Structure formats: C-alpha cells, structure tokens
Amino acid sequence: MDSVLRASGRFGPRALLITTAAVPLTGWTVHALALHRKLAATRKDPLTGLLRRDAYTHCARRLLARHGDDTAVVMVDADHFKAINDGLGHAAGDTVLAAFGARLTAWAGPAAAAGRLGGDEFALVLDLPAARRVQRLEHLVRMLHTPVVLDDGRVVDVAASVGAATPNTVGSRDLSVLQRAADAALYDGKHTGRAILATT
After folding, report:
1. Is 105 in the same domain as 123?
2. CA separation (Å) from 53 to 39, 80, 116, 118?
3. CATH number of the domain that residue 93 is part of
4. Can you give the residue range of the structural domain that contains 8?
5. How many structural domains comprise the chain?
6. Closest to 186 measured CA to CA, from 166, 170, 164
C-alpha cells in the first residue's frame, strides 16, 4: 500500500482510509454474490432452467397484479412424454424436458414467470395483449412441435398441448383460478389430438 502512495502524490490519508475500508467490503460483496447465486439456484429447476413451483407462483402473482387483464396464464403439457421415457430412456426424456425449458424461456422472454410444476407440466404467466395473443400462442405450439436431437444424434418427434386463460375471460385475477381454467382448456384440447392450442 505504501509503494502505491509514493507512486502518486495525489493519494493521501483519505485515499488510504477509503482503500482499507473497501477491502472488507469487497470480501463481503463476493460472499453476497455467491449467496445470491445459491439462492437463484434453489429458485430454478436444474434440468430445465425454469422456476420451481414456489418461485414461479410468487412471480406469477406479481405479474397478474401489475398487468391485469393483459396477462395470460399458459399451461403446457408434453404430448406422449411417457412413451419417450419408456421407449428411449430417461436420459432422452431429460433432454426433451431441457429443450422444452429452453424453448419456453425463449418464447416467454425475461419478464415472464415460467415454471416447471412437475414432470412434463409447465406454466407461464406473461403480459400478452389480446391483439396478438392467439398468434403468439400458435407460435408457441409450433416451437414445441419442433423435433429434439439427442446427444447420440437420434431425432425425437415431440409436441405439447397448450391451454391459456386470461382474467377478462375467466372473470378473476386469482392465479389458482386461472391455472385451473387454462388446465381445463388444455385437457379439452388434448382429447382432439396433439400439439393443440385451447383457450378459455
């Protein structure tokens, strides 16, 4: 420290005080960043990179309060996922889930709440104005219907059904009510085939 002070006449006791005070702060900052990363890791599903259920629910409720009737609650369920796991193995199933996570994240954008609720079921809450809602949701169905390439080069045909609900169609901004409505639409759609979009 002394050699640094001699190197420039502009440094004085005040600069020395600031420098020594910053040293423990730097150590604390590194610790805080490490803790933040650990907390972020517990908020996210390690396979898909999507939010875990609790973190998703917290973010989703905040978005519903902020955006109101322009918010869409979107439920996504992989079609015939059990057949992929049973026929190609769990590693292949994990690759498909990871691909779905990446596609959902890309589609929804950083401001959305995108979560893995369990297994092959996902939920998203995002600002999605009515003027482009159907177009955006149809684009999501197409994205999820794109084949997934496994590590060994095999190509897996995948698809997912999508159900969506909005506060103005359901008459509620309650997340649980909206998710049930979107889920009901999704399963009504599944009865007609795969890669289906259904809305309330």
Report:
1. yes
2. 14, 23, 6, 8
3. 3.30.70.270
4. 2-43
5. 2
6. 164
28 shares its domain with 121: no
Residue-wise pLDDT for 60-83, tens only, equals 999 999 998 999 999 999 999 999
- 3-class state of residue 166 by DSSP: coil
Please name the helix (run of DSSP H) or strand (run of DSSP E) that holds residue 78, with its range, or none: strand 71-78
pLDDT by residue (tens digit) across 87-143?
999 999 999 999 999 999 999 999 999 999 999 999 999 999 999 999 999 999 999
**Predicted model pTM:** 0.78
Give CA angle at 189 (113, 168), nearest 5°: 50
* Rounded Cα–Cα distance for residues 91 and 99 (Å): 12
Same domain, 87 and 19: no
Kindly give the residue spans of alpha helices, DSSP state H, lying in the chain: 2-7, 13-43, 53-67, 81-88, 90-108, 130-144, 167-170, 175-190
